[in-house]
Amino acid sequence: MADPDQSDDTAPEAFEGKLADNIVHFARALRTAGMRVGPGSVVDAITAVETAGIGEKDDFYWVLHSVLVNRHEDHELFDQAFRLYWRKRALLERMMAQLLPPSPAGPQKDKDEVRSRVADALMKNEQQPPEKPKPKVEIDARMTLSSQEVLQGKDFEQMSAAEIAEARRLIARMILPLDKVKTRRLEPSSRGRTIDLRRSFRSTIRSGGVIDLKKLAPAERHPPIVAICDISGSMTQYSRMFLHFLHALTEARGRVSSFVFGTRLSNVTRQIKARDPDEALERCSEAVADWAGGTRIADCLHEFNRRWSRRVLAQGAIVLLVTDGLEREGQEQLAFEMDRLHRSCRRLVWLNPLLRYDAFEAKAAGIVSMLPHVDEFRTIHNLNAMRDLVTALDTTRTRDADPMKWLRGRAA
């Protein structure tokens, strides 16, 4: 690590012997990249460095890490930001130019995505001179592909911090279906077939003996939606984007119950009802103790079926199960709980981000146990997949994601 107290010919004023300013600038970059770094954490970091003293690179790294990193998923962000920031700025600019876009798959996928977000955050904090206004040029863009169209099909894990923010705004503006189903409850209607005797008698008395028949018809309501979302380490980015979708769905329809699970099941229906979507996700993170940890699908589904199914699956609810299905143990229990959940709801839709791969095959034991007990099998890895889900939630439309049909097509 280049000593932050040593000045360099190519370094700006922030690097000329002002270690405290460097730490503030570094914390601002972490916050822009998505970490929870407040003013209090910055003050604690400066105090910790002054107390511990500046020794070797590893010592300085872990002093800042112990103060600024509070969540497991933030470790990779901090590590990449530290490696890029605490060195000469000339080298930093060269590395920014050499960054490659993240690959669609492979072991380096998560690190490449984190590196892209960190690079965006650091470059955003650079103080650049104001650009001169450019002359307006008329361009015919009818045959070009807009950035928004590219964003629609981009994987959530490959998005930068700015693209994730734009994707959240697009999710909030999605037009949700206005599908309604008939219930057993009756309501006044001029086109009903059932006569409302009480209202008819009252109307006849008020009119002086003229018979005025009032009628009733089944009330139409939006079917309840119950979302059960996997928040394990392999599903972190997808689950966060899906929770933004649930927030928009809750505001539009109201009758939405939200659950998240990793090693245990948590009901976050109240937390997701916050007015601001970022505040809603913040409350969900505080209410869940096992975020981005392991996963126990069978045990969590058993708890849902035992404690919550009779409360939230009434009136023909639609269940959205978001998980990759990578369960290693308890296959018989998993199949039993999936069958019980399937029998308790109107429709069971499984949203699996692994389905985005063309070479995906249902070979994992957990996926094989779950697939026969769902009505639809869909992916949820980008904005286009979310729009397809919105269309699928419309109960008046025909469904085209039959899981057994998908299996037969794969086998052929």
Describe how the helices and strands are arranged.
Elements: H1 19-33, H2 39-52, H3 57-68, H4 75-85, H5 89-98, H6 109-124, H7 147-152, H8 161-172, E1 181-188, E2 194-195, H9 197-206, E3 215-221, E4 225-230, H10 236-253, E5 256-261, E6 265-267, H11 277-287, H12 297-307, H13 309-312, E7 318-322, H14 331-344, E8 347-351, H15 365-370, E9 376-378, H16 383-392, H17 403-411
Parallel strand pairs: 4-5, 4-7, 7-8, 8-9
Antiparallel strand pairs: 1-3, 2-3, 5-6
Helix pairs in contact: 1-4, 1-6, 2-3, 4-6, 8-10, 10-11, 12-14
General description of the model:
This protein is an alpha/beta fold. The chain is 46% helix and 11% strand. It contains 17 helices and 9 strands. A 6-stranded mixed β-sheet has the order 6-5-4-7-8-9. A hairpin with a 3-residue loop joins strand 5 (256-261) and strand 6. It is elongated.
Shape by Cα distribution: elongated
Q: Quote the beta fraction.
A: 5-15%
- What is the radius of gyration computed over CA atoms, rounded to a whole number of angstroms? 27 Å
Between the first and last Cα atoms, what is the distance in angstroms? 56 Å
Give a summary of the structure in a few sentences.
This protein is of the alpha/beta class and 412 residues long. The protein has helices at 19-33, 39-52, 57-68, 75-85, 89-98, 109-124, 147-152, 161-172, 197-206, 236-253, 277-287, 297-307, 309-312, 331-344, 365-370, 383-392, 403-411; strands at residues 181-188, 194-195, 215-221, 225-230, 256-261, 265-267, 318-322, 347-351, 376-378.
